Amino acid sequence: MAAAEALSAERPAALAWRRFARRRVALVSLAILVGVVLVTVGAELLAPYPQGRTHATDVLANPSRDYLLGTDTLGRDTLSQLLYAGRVTLAVGVSVALLATFGGTLIGMVAGYVGGSVDSVLMRLTDTLLALPALMVVMMGARMLGDSIFDVVLVLSLLGWMAVARIIRGKVLSLREMEFVASARAMGAGTWRVMFRHLLPNLVGEIAVAVSLATAAAILTESVLSFLGFGVSQVDTPTWGNMLGGNEGFMTVAPWLVIPPGMAIAVTVLCVNFVGDGLRDALDVRGDGHSRSSRRLSSRGASTGLRR
Amino acid sequence: MTRFVLRRIATMAPILLAISFAVFWAANRIAKPGYDIAINPRVSPAARAAYLESLGLNEPLPLRYLRWLGDFVTGDLGTSLVRNGSDVWPIVRTALANTLVLVGTAVVLSLALGIAVGTVSAVRRNTFADYAMATFSFAGISIPVFWLGLMLQLFFGLYLANWLGVTPPLLPTAGLYSPGRQGFDLVDRIRHLALPTMTLSLQLIAVYSRYMRASLLDVMTSDHIRVARGKGLAERTVVIRHGVRNALIPVTTQAAVDIGQLVGGLIVTELVFQYPGMGRLFVDAMTGGDYPMLLATTMIIAAAVITMNLAADLFYGVLDPRIRRGSG
Fold first, then answer.
1. Which residues of B touch A135 (CB under 8 A)?
2. ipTM value
């Protein structure tokens, strides 16, 4: 049974990989991302200095052989901080993306499959949340909760599931009219069984694309929040965002404090977006919901919205 | 048509009401009105109760909400707790005007450039130019806006100025006017708008050009384009007269939604460039615990966003009858 499943699941995966690998940009981006993950996860091995180590005699030092990217106002090595911060930033981005996609998938599936008044209520909620000025709501939410990593992940996940829900609902609306759903129900499968055993496997492409786009959005939003001082506290946990926020005032005398973290965010997000785009092509996912108005809303939620 | 408009407005009203309550609740949680008095050990309980009563803070939240809503609807936004007790509305009005100037400039500029870039990408699709523009768009949505702002400040304010040996720098990096300037000066104002506009526009152009490309490619497969070609019109005329005009609908609608979103979404740009608009007012009110100001800014921003969404929906319905008859 397991072997047969693995065999039938192998084929589309291999096909998707082949189509993904055909796109050189996506492949290069994936390689860069793997590199970024390895470098930040291995920060203990690679960073020249331990996290948060201050050098009282080398405050705001220029880049040199001792400090490849200079030091900040407390004499902390920028390169080391960058590596440790990257780990936090990536972890927040990925956790938010997974949580938001999980919630969005669940809500989208229920709304699309159950339909009726459940659908109306859920979609009204989704549209209302999508229609709010996103960054403002996130900032107020973060202000109410706190500045630990957990709080930031919670706020971003609670306010990041809507675009996914719309996309999944649109797909489920068309899937539920297909014969395999009718036959599953004729064989006595209940609502949850149809949703998880029959619909979910058909949503894998959408979910994969949603996770990648949500990761890009979450990294950017987290960095904006932390930059503004509403995100992860800069006292003990460096992130790329709060490295920028804390050092903005020294930009003119120590540009090495603001250029590398920003570059790191930009390159990482760019690569995630390219990978997501490659996945979209490889898995044959249309990037939008089913109707015109939902297309407008969902694609804006996925691509812009939060970061101005 | 009238029914469509009325139905849309009718669905928006309860949403706006629900949001106003959520805003009121959140503002109370964040700014904690009366909190500093309540924890001050040198204030006697009697004085504390009298103070809270004078501000109406002794009443339960729903009652205070209704009172605030009544005041808000009749145009009484209260007085600021921080800015020497001055009225909230004139401050908000000035900030709103400043923000709208910046948003309007950025959206109009980005729309024009985005439409041009998108049209070229669609006409020359899968050529080097198309790929180059796609890469540019990806960069545009991936670069953090605040960092782009900082980099533009560094470049124009420091490196370019040093290299050219000019002081003050070519473009001012902060504020609305040059220090010490009196009265209105169009050139000075435009120069101060330049860098914030650039910061905003990169992302907007990236988004609009992708929309325009997709929309134009979609339109170009439709029957009326085949008819136009069949009539023997020049390809240029077909694209511009019959293609672009129809493809503009989703892009301009998106721009309308963006104007609403940007009124509250400019927070980052306004802070980086110290531009006195709604976003900065909102952040100042939130960090300073200025409760009436926080309520006023959040509510006006939320109303602006929802109104522009409604306007975009109606606009869409007017232009495309299929939407009107659809699920609505």
1. 264-265, 267-268
2. 0.83
